[in-house]
TrEMBL record:
Protein name according to UniProt: Helix-turn-helix domain-containing protein
GO molecular function, one term: DNA binding
Organism: Polaromonas hydrogenivorans
Gene3D superfamilies tied to this protein: Winged helix-like DNA-binding domain superfamily/Winged helix DNA-binding domain
Pfam family, one: HTH_23
Domain Resolvase/invertase-type recombinase catalytic: 1-27
Keywords annotated in UniProt: Plasmid
Length: 67
């Protein structure tokens, strides 16, 4: 049971870190995407996961599409 609890805590920590990193690096991530870098490269460069980069891009595209 303790292994499962530790795993869940690690997931929560990563989500919190990703959320904090996203708020401070979303603009930079979008600039790097526009420059043609891969999501993986951007994630490594900014210290966030490639899935976080993907979420930033999806959110940005949804905002640009409007209602």
């Amino acid at each position: 049971m303790s292994v499962l609890a530790e795993f869940e805590r690690d997931l929560l920590r990563e989500r919190v870190r990703s959320g904090i990193a996203t708020s401070s690096s979303a603009r930079r991530a979008l600039e790097l995407v526009a420059a043609g870098q891969s999501y993986r490269e951007i994630g490594l460069r900014l210290g966030i996961s490639k899935n976080t980069v993907l979420a930033i891009v999806k959110r940005h595209r949804a905002e640009q599409a409007g209602p």
